[in-house]
Amino acid sequence: MKNPPRLYTHRSGNATLGGVLLGIGALVAACVAGYAMWSLTQSPVAPTSADPIGVDEPEPMGIAQTESIEEILGAVQVYVQNKQYPQATTVLEHAAAQYPNDQELQFALGDLYMLQNLHEQAYRQYVLGIEIGPSSAVAEFTAGTLANMLDQLELAEMHYNESMRLDPKNPDTPIFLAAIQIKMNQLVNAKINLALAGKMSPDRAKIYVMRSEIAMRENNMVIALEQIRRAIDLEPTEVAWILQEARVLKRSGNAEQALNQLASLPQEYVDLPETAFVMAECYGMLGRPGDAASRLMDVAQKYPRDSKLAFEVALWLERTGERADAIEWAKKAIALGNERAGGWIESLK
User: Fold this and answer.
1) Domain limits, the chain
2) pTM value?
3) pLDDT tens track for 285-303
């Protein structure tokens, strides 16, 4: 597997950042899955047959006491390459129980859980591996990322801090740590870590995007715009940065400019819900609620299962005076699981 997307590999100690802003969970989830697949297919000993155990299906207690950890990982490697995750899990769970003090097995099982999006189990395995020791920047970083995905922000902050202590020269860690601190509204600490990352790697656009977000929270639109434009200079084709610039322009009162900027994006990005929400707010600032409702309705047709979109359509239709249509859209939102729409309908009575 060439150029694998990953967080870290226990074997090399290298790291690549998959993506981080404020909503890093979904982006890191993809990165975690890619890393887990890569890690589990990098067994130090290649298996000798297509069937690693010698039968079509693995038997849970079929791991002989004489089998080495390398042989077990070789067996797991074949299952993972063939996407036979339940079989791989069975083998690794029993191996981890058989060798409870082997750190590499505990981490490998954590990687396998990550591959299956079992983040709570993966986090527990990483904590167990860290407790076995010795800890490493690699393991602490991965544990921190998993904790963030579980919305355990204090634990994530603790692991990232430890990762930085063990490897103070890696610019990725203070970036991820700053993202956690922004989510916790620890803006001073986030600034410190972004400054540290900027000294180590001044060409990381994400640093300036996050500084822009901090400036917006502090209501300093001049700095917010300056920082996001530095990010765009570094990565001019990154749509997320352009969307962030539009948000800053909108907050600065430049709704028309923000609209023009978003409208110039390729159509597939114009039709994203995140873009539509910002455009609707801009239309609202310009006194054009009908255009806001129309834009959201167009996008809602493309995302018929999005309850937030349906409810936003209802809100904007009501502002145009089309109450009956607004209520119908709110009912759609309720059917899709929106928790606010029902109370909103009641408030109209």
Assistant:
1) 1-42+100-202, 270-349
2) 0.75
3) 999 999 999 999 999 999 9
